[in-house]
Automatic annotation (TrEMBL):
Domain CMP/dCMP-type deaminase: 7-129
Protein's recorded name: Cytidine and dCMP deaminase domain-containing protein 1
Organism of derivation: Luteolibacter algae
Superkingdom as given in the UniProt entry: Bacteria
Tagged with keyword Methyltransferase: no
Length: 149
């Protein structure tokens, strides 16, 4: 019997999850992954502060105040490739409105997310531009491990 295999969106989501583990944000860890037109991984990213910035320990105490400084996973992701290079991206949380706009500017046609973010206009933006925006929750990675004999 052949083993079940992750679909491409599930594969991208699993990678996004691994990337989220690297987030330095103690409250919200978001990861994202981009695949090219041959389903090759071209980038993974997570939310965090600008590269090289080392905050004081007090920085993380102000949960509200720090938000404007956090670079979202999708923005960090887009900084790693050129427009048109990515066919699809997966992100552990639905893109916020600004990130959805950025993903559209980068020409990304398929977006998969796990958690819904109700404050986002992403569904409306996706509908207007004909971008696939789909929830992916069924990728229990343990189901895909080869069972022990
Ligand atoms: Zn965002």
């Amino acid at each position: 019997m052949s083993q079940p295999r992750l679909s491409i969106p599930q594969y991208a989501m699993a990678l996004a999850h691994v990337a989220s583990l690297r987030s330095e944000d103690p409250y919200r860890k978001v990861g994202a992954a981009a695949l090219d037109h041959d389903n090759r991984v071209i980038a993974t990213a997570y939310n965090g502060l600008a590269p090289g910035f080392d905050p004081s320990p007090d920085f993380w105490k102000d949960r509200e105040g720090r938000q404007k400084f956090m670079l979202h996973a999708e923005i960090n992701l887009c900084s790693l490739f050129r427009r048109g290079d990515a066919k699809l991206i997966a992100t552990t949380t639905m893109p916020c409105t600004a990130c959805m706009q950025t993903l559209c500017a980068y020409g990304i046609k398929e977006i998969y997310y796990q958690e819904i973010y109700h404050a986002s206009d992403a569904p409306e933006i996706a509908a207007l531009y004909g971008v696939t925006l789909q929830q992916v929750t069924d990728f229990p990675m343990s189901d895909y491990l080869i069972p022990e004999e």
